[in-house]
Write a structure and sequence with these properties.
Alpha-Beta Plaits, three-stranded mixed β-sheet, Alpha-lytic protease prodomain-like, 4 domains, alpha/beta
Length: 457
């Protein structure tokens, strides 16, 4: 039996039970004059109307998505649940009004005591049956509307018990017991209704269950090949969960590998959130953000005079980072090592997906770069850009660095080339660029050109 068929069956049983209870309790309440029983009967009447709402809400929410309602109709259940609870609150206002009237006027007369008493026992039997059937349906499939309906019958059951206790005290001379029982019923209805109202409201505003976002993100990040997870969104509507996430994968990964990873992610999320509609958006990984982060973190370490030669590599799905840091040449190797360790710890906090960090320690040059004309450096940068971009295979360049050491220029840069170019051709392109850069100025010493496949976002 499908979820929708089972839910509709449970709803029909709720309607039948509600109709039976309404007739029995209204008759018993008016005949006996018990405010407690009348309160219970009006509450049951509201339950009957709520059961009808629940039936149509479950039927509507089970409809498949269409061109207008592309995410389905599940939120109808939350709207129905709120409607049911508001009906309960209307009942409460009537009960409170009449209870205070009787207490103030000291009108506490119950006629046909045993009619009220026997009616309540019949009510308890019907409530137990209806609550058990609806609760059984909830265990098989989640439904806010059916859960609200079950809550109504549980309320009726407890209300019937309160009414009986009030009748017993009334029978033994405590005349206000019937009105007090009615007010106790109101307090319980308000408590239960507010709790259910909050659940339905949270669903309508697309709030994720507490703590679930962190659990889902942790599961995504444990999948091999996933470098990052961001823009994670989770919401619930009726029986269904909706999960959207953006993940970062290696830019060199094949479509088949990426699809395999997303399938694994969907399986793991489904274990945490069953009956979920999951959408995973994949993005190619770019080392540029990591390089920017490394520079920013290194700039906060006062002992580091410069950082250069930053390299980010992906090997067997793992990230490897290396760089050169320049320190005071007069410090000991122990001090230099401590500074490098501190930087690595800071980077691992900022970049948890990086597997290995390698630091190359260098003494900083005693010659300041300010001894060389700024115009010379700007001219050199412009010439390097012209040379690199004049190569038809080069699409762009970035991370261009010109460092001055012992009167010489040391140049590093990254070039993006077509991903279909062979490694041999890429090496030849890099070599040509390096040779042309050296010919610009006789002070150019070391030139390192790193070719990488073009990133298409």
């Amino acid at each position: 039996m499908s979820n929708s068929t089972s839910n509709e069956s449970a709803s029909k049983k709720g309607i039948l039970a509600g109709a039976t209870l309404t007739v029995i309790e209204l008759t018993g309440g008016f005949v006996s004059g018990s405010l407690g029983l009348l309160s219970s009967s009006f509450n049951t009447l509201m339950d009957f109307l709520a059961a009808i709402i629940m039936f149509f809400a479950v039927r509507e929410s089970s409809k498949p998505p269409d061109e207008v309602h592309m995410y389905g109709h599940e939120k109808v259940e939350s709207i129905a649940a709120i409607s049911e609870i508001l009906l309960l609150f209307l009942t409460c206002s009537w009960i409170v009004y009449n209870a205070f009237l009787r207490l103030v006027a000291n009108q506490q007369t119950i006629e046909f005591f045993w009619v009220a008493f026997s009616t309540n026992f019949a009510s308890i039997a019907i409530d137990l049956f209806a609550y058990a059937r609806l609760k059984s349906s909830i265990k098989k499939q989640k439904s806010e509307a059916i859960e609200a309906g079950a809550l109504h019958f549980l309320n009726d059951l407890l209300i019937a018990v309160i009414v009986i206790v009030g009748l017993i005290f009334y029978h033994f001379g405590v005349w206000i017991a019937d009105s007090i029982a009615a007010l106790c019923i109101v307090a319980y209805i308000l408590y239960s209704g507010i709790r259910m109202l909050r659940i339905s409201y949270v669903t309508l505003i697309d709030a994720a269950p507490p703590g679930i976002s962190e659990k889902v993100k942790n599961q995504i990040l444990t999948v091999e090949g996933v470098k990052d997870c961001h823009y994670l969104r989770i919401r619930r509507a009726g029986q269904k969960n909706f999960v959207d996430a953006h993940i970062t994968l290696s830019g060199t990964m094949t479509l088949y590998q990426a699809h395999s990873i997303t399938s694994t992610i969907e399986e793991r999320i489904s274990k945490i959130l069953p009956n979920s509609d999951i959408l995973i958006h994949t993005e190619p990984y770019s080392g540029k953000d990591i390089v920017t982060t490394i520079r920013a973190v290194a700039s906060d370490v006062s002992e580091i005079r410069d950082i250069h030669g930053i390299s980010v590599r992906t090997i067997e799905g793992k990230l490897f980072v290396s760089y050169h840091i320049e320190l005071d040449p007069k410090i000991t190797i122990a001090s230099a090592h401590e500074i490098a360790d501190r930087l690595e710890r800071l980077l691992k906090d900022k970049l948890p997906n990086v597997s290995t960090i390698i630091s190359h320690l260098e003494p900083s040059s005693e010659i300041s770069g300010t001894e060389y004309s700024h115009k010379s450096t700007v001219f050199l940068e412009n010439e390097i850009q012209k040379i690199s971009l004049s190569m038809p295979e080069v699409h762009s360049l970035h991370e261009l660095e010109i460092l001055v050491r012992d009167g010489k220029f040391n140049v590093t840069l990254h070039c993006e080339i077509d991903s279909s170019i062979t490694l041999t051709m890429a090496h030849e392109i890099a070599t040509k660029i390096e040779e042309k850069i050296r010919s610009i100025d006789n002070r150019v010493n070391q030139v390192s050109v790193h070719c990488e496949p073009q990133t298409r976002n």
